[in-house]
Amino acid sequence: MSKFKPLAMVAADNPGAFLGTDEARAEGELDASDLEKVEQILAGSGYVTIPEELLTSRYDGSTLLRFHGSGEPSWWDRFFGSF
């Protein structure tokens, strides 16, 4: 869950273990029906799921907060992480 409702991200394992749910399903590590159940519950609770692979993109927007990570901040950092 993001610190900015209504965003959520679904990962098959820890974030970053797979490059998204498609890869996890292709490797047999995530059952499609389990993923569908989770996404339905999130949608029913008012959340919008964001694909993990999109969250790895560089965040180039403005922010008044200081980034505390290493390298360039990503969309993950912006909506789920440290700033």
Structure description:
The protein is mostly helical. It contains four helices and two strands; from the N terminus they run βααβαα. It has a two-stranded parallel ribbon with strand order 1-2. The longest helix has 13 residues, at 32-44. It is flat. The two termini are 15 Å apart.
- Name the shape in a single word: flat
Mean pLDDT, all residues: 84
The tally of strands reads 2
Strand order of the largest sheet: 1-2
**Class by SSE composition:** mainly alpha
Radius of gyration (CA) equals 14 Å
Largest sheet: 2 strands, parallel
Descriptors:
83 residues; 4 helices
Topology:
Layout: E1 7-8, H1 21-26, H2 32-44, E2 48-49, H3 52-55, H4 75-79
Parallel strand pairs: 1-2
A few lines on this structure:
The chain is mainly α and 83 residues long. Helix content is 34%, strand content 5%. The chain starts with 6 loop residues before the first strand and ends with a helix.
